[in-house]
Every structure is written in structure tokens, then in C-alpha cells.
Design brief:
Distance between the termini: 45 Å
Helix content: 25-40%
Strand content: 25-35%
Structural class: alpha+beta
Number of strands: 8
Order of helices and strands: EHHHEHEEEEHEE
Largest sheet: 8 strands, antiparallel
Shape: globular
Number of helices: 5
């Protein structure tokens, strides 16, 4: 099973740290596994670089884009997609500080959620702490100066 946390990064930090996403990953991992004063400091840093999830807009977007799809269901604020032909299943739960996605089987079901979310906001960072994977849902285009 794959477990992702999606955070909405402040635009200025997302642009500044483009290409250095590992630094975000290390901060989130350190916060997860630290204790005491270090945990307090890393949590303050995370609060500073992240934006609250626009919960209502995310719920509306998911319902609008996926509400009529076969295999989609919603129960108590948790969304599920099951794609039987591809043996793929994913769940999504929206919280104020992050969005939690779990996927099983092929990547197709969780990709459906990611596609909806990337249209909602441009600076979602997905982090899988267990497998040390991370990346932008919508890669930030680097500015070219002539």
C-alpha cells in the first residue's frame, strides 16, 4: 500500500525551492520522527511554508469531476475510487493541514485523484514518507530569463 500526504506549499517557497524538493521532504520527515524541541521547531517551519488546504473547494472539485464516475464513492468525507479492470483502488481524505491519499494495486486510481487536485491548486507537494518518494502534482515551470 502506498500512503501519500499532500501539502499545499506557499507559492514563493515552491518557486524558490523548485528542483530542491528533497529539502521539503527532509523537513517533513524530520518533523514526523523527531521529539521535543526539534519537533516544535520543524512544525513551526512547516506551518510557515504551507498554506491551509481549501477544504470546501477541494470537496466541490472532487464531487464535480468524479461524482458520476463508475467506481467512485464518498462516505463521511472520505472518497474512494476503484478501477476493477486495472485492479486499482485509492482513498482520499481532506484535512485542514494536508490531504491523505492511500493507493493499492496499479497507480491508476490515485492518479485520478492527483489529476483533479492539480487543477485545483498549483503547488501541491506529494510526500510518501515510508518509501521516501516526493514530487509536485503540477511541476512548476522554471522562469527563463533572456
Amino acid at each position: 500500500m502506498r500512503k501519500y500526504r499532500l501539502y499545499l506549499i506557499e507559492d514563493e517557497f515552491a518557486a524558490h525551492y523548485f528542483g530542491r524538493e528533497r529539502m521539503f521532504f527532509q523537513l517533513f520527515r524530520e518533523s514526523e520522527f523527531s521529539k521535543g524541541e526539534l519537533k516544535y521547531i520543524t512544525e513551526k517551519q512547516i506551518k510557515f511554508i504551507t498554506k491551509p488546504i481549501p477544504v470546501l473547494r477541494v470537496h466541490q472539485m472532487i464531487q464535480k469531476k468524479l461524482g458520476n464516475d463508475k467506481g467512485f464513492s464518498a462516505e463521511n468525507g472520505t472518497y474512494s475510487i476503484e478501477i476493477s479492470g486495472k485492479l486499482s483502488r485509492a482513498t482520499l481524505e481532506v484535512r485542514g493541514e494536508a490531504i491523505y491519499v492511500e493507493g493499492l494495486g496499479s497507480y491508476e486510481a490515485e492518479t485520478v485523484f492527483f489529476e483533479v487536485l492539480r487543477k485545483c491548486e498549483s503547488s501541491f507537494l506529494a510526500i510518501d514518507l515510508e518509501k521516501s518518494r516526493f514530487g509536485w502534482l503540477k511541476p512548476i515551470k522554471e522562469r527563463k530569463f533572456v
